[in-house]
Structure formats: structure tokens, C-alpha cells
Write a structure and sequence with these properties.
The protein has about 300 residues and is of the alpha+beta class. The protein has nine helices and twelve strands. Bound molecules: aspartic acid.
């Protein structure tokens, strides 16, 4: 019987000094909830969804409550959930007015023939499944609003380099292996600050923001989405595992490739099918929590 395993992240970027503790605490709390489930024999899929829901509800992170704002001051969120046992996946892109985008992604996976629903269609689907309207005002935080104001003309707009270095950090994701040897992943984000309305990043795309396959492992990415997409980073990490890399080696290799090939910035968490976890990033910081082989939770930021 495999020993369950878990690692999650709360984004990679220029996480400000005064929010380091919040990031570490939020990651630790989500890991504890997911670990309670996994260590009692629960499915990896339920554990990653539970972890991401907690992180979506925590205003510290750029997902659900606390998502960053579009150029027009609106909120459009992306999320995905993938089951390594079947390769089934459900995702939403640019969805509005829902509290937990990852829960809608799960319904897409379980109740439709599709993998990805976007925009108004995704929101209509959520309503058809009984998900209540969650007003945008309930998702916006003062901190995100301040960043948005700063990015407006005359508001001290940041340079393109600065946007690349700090873009939308605080996205969340989790990967897990359960006692039955199944892996799963979930990723959720508000995207990047000041994005064009309708922009969808890497997060809800299979192989980019997330990938899970029982034969390989699972990965969840964060960072500058356009660069993560170009390198199909999560699937690439899983393929390296197939080639003999450990989770840590796979994470380091894909971040090196991201840097060298497209000058990209980001971070990734990986679990391999032996349950070893790894993470790597080339941004100033990354928020993570994982369960050690001894069963205790460690959080770092
Ligand atoms: N990857 C996300 C996006 O580009 C942002 C992030 O991970 O912080 O939408």
C-alpha cells in the first residue's frame, strides 16, 4: 500500500516581506486539512480539491477571494482539477461570480462531456449545478484594489520587466498521492494583475498549469502564465519522471528550461509515483507546504 503524500503551493513571485507569515500560515492550514483526509485513506482528488478550496477562501492568495483584477477592474478566475487514475480533467477559464472555481472545475469533470468551460458559459453551467452567485465585491480585497489602482494610467504603472517578475503571484495549487496509488492535481488563480479581459493563463490548461497521471506523477505550476504555457511545464515535469528523474530533479529541470528557453519566471510542485515531493522556482520567492516522510507538515516562503 503506497504511503500518501502531499505538496501544495501559494504562488511564486516577489512575495512581499510583510505577507510571508500569512503565506506560510495559509499554506500550512490548507496542507493540514488535505492531510487529514489523505492520511485517513481519502482519495487524492478530494484532498487536492479541499486544499485548493481553503486557499481560494484565504484572501492572502490570488485565487477565489483575493483574486487579482483585470484591466477593467473585474475578476476573472481560472481553475483545473485532474485525476491521474483516468486522465479525466475539468477546468474553467475566466469564470466570474463564483466563490470556489475549483469546485466548478470538478463539476465540469464529473457532469459534462467537456474538459474546459469559459466565461459566461462556465458561469451559466455553475448556476445550472446549484452554485450560488457570489458577487464580485465579495472576491475583491483592498490589497488587490491598491495594486490595480497603481497599474492604472497615472497610477505609477510598473514596467514590463516588473510585471514579468511579479505577475499575479499567489496562485495556488496542490498535488497528492493517495493510499491507492492514485495521484491528482488542482490549480486555481485570478491570473495576472491588469490582464486584458478574456485573457486565460496556463492554470486551467491540461499539461500547463497542471498535470496528473498515475503512471508518472503530478505537477502544478505557477508564475508568468504565457511562459509556462509555451513550455507545457507540468506535463514536461511528469515526462521527466517517466525518464527516471525524481520529483525534485524534474522540478529543477523544467524551471531551468523555462528560464533558458523562454526567459520565463515561475515555480512548480511535483509528486512522483513513489510519493517523493519536490519544488523549484526562479522567482524571488515561492510559498509551499508539504508533508515530510515522518508525517509532519512543513511550510516555507
Ligand atoms: N500562472 C498564473 C497565470 O498566469 C499566475 C500565477 O501563477 O501567479 O494566470
Amino acid at each position: 500500500m503506497p504511503t500518501p503524500s502531499l505538496i501544495l503551493h501559494g504562488g511564486a513571485g516577489n512575495i512581499p516581506d510583510d505577507t510571508l507569515q500569512e503565506h506560510a500560515d495559509g499554506c500550512r492550514q490548507a496542507a493540514q486539512i488535505a492531510w487529514d483526509l489523505l492520511s485517513r485513506g481519502g482519495p487524492a482528488l478530494d484532498a487536492v480539491e479541499a486544499a485548493v478550496r481553503v486557499l481560494e477562501d484565504d484572501p492572502t492568495f490570488n485565487a477565489g477571494h483575493g483574486a487579482c483584477l483585470t484591466r477593467d477592474g473585474d475578476i476573472e478566475m481560472d481553475a483545473i482539477l485532474m485525476d491521474g487514475a483516468t486522465l479525466n480533467a475539468g477546468a474553467v477559464g475566466a469564470i466570474q461570480r463564483v466563490k470556489n472555481p475549483v469546485a466548478v472545475a470538478r463539476l465540469v469533470m464529473e457532469r459534462t462531456q467537456h474538459c474546459l468551460l469559459v466565461g459566461a458559459g462556465a458561469e451559466a453551467f455553475a448556476r445550472s449545478q446549484g452554485i450560488p452567485v457570489w458577487p464580485t465585491q465579495n472576491l475583491i480585497t483592498e490589497r488587490r484594489l491598491a495594486r490595480w489602482r497603481e497599474a492604472q494610467p497615472g497610477g505609477g504603472q510598473r514596467s514590463e520587466t516588473s510585471v514579468r517578475e511579479t505577475a499575479g503571484h499567489d496562485t495556488v495549487g496542490a498535488v497528492a498521492l493517495d493510499v491507492n496509488g492514485h495521484v491528482a492535481v488542482a490549480t486555481s488563480t485570478g491570473g495576472i494583475d491588469n490582464k486584458l479581459p478574456g485573457r486565460v493563463g496556463d492554470s486551467p490548461l491540461i499539461g500547463c498549469g497542471a498535470y496528473a497521471d498515475d503512471a508518472l506523477g503530478a505537477a502544478s505550476a505557477t508564475g508568468w502564465g504565457e511562459s509556462l504555457m509555451k513550455t507545457v511545464i507540468s506535463k514536461s515535469a511528469c515526462e521527466l519522471i517517466a525518464g527516471g528523474a525524481t520529483a525534485q530533479q524534474a522540478a529543477e529541470a523544467v524551471i531551468r528550461h523555462l528560464d533558458e528557453r523562454v526567459n520565463g519566471r515561475g515555480g512548480i510542485i511535483v509528486v512522483d509515483r513513489q510519493g517523493r515531493v519536490g519544488y523549484a522556482f526562479n522567482t524571488p520567492r515561492m510559498a509551499c507546504a508539504w508533508v515530510t516522510p515522518e508525517g509532519s507538515i512543513r511550510a516555507e516562503c
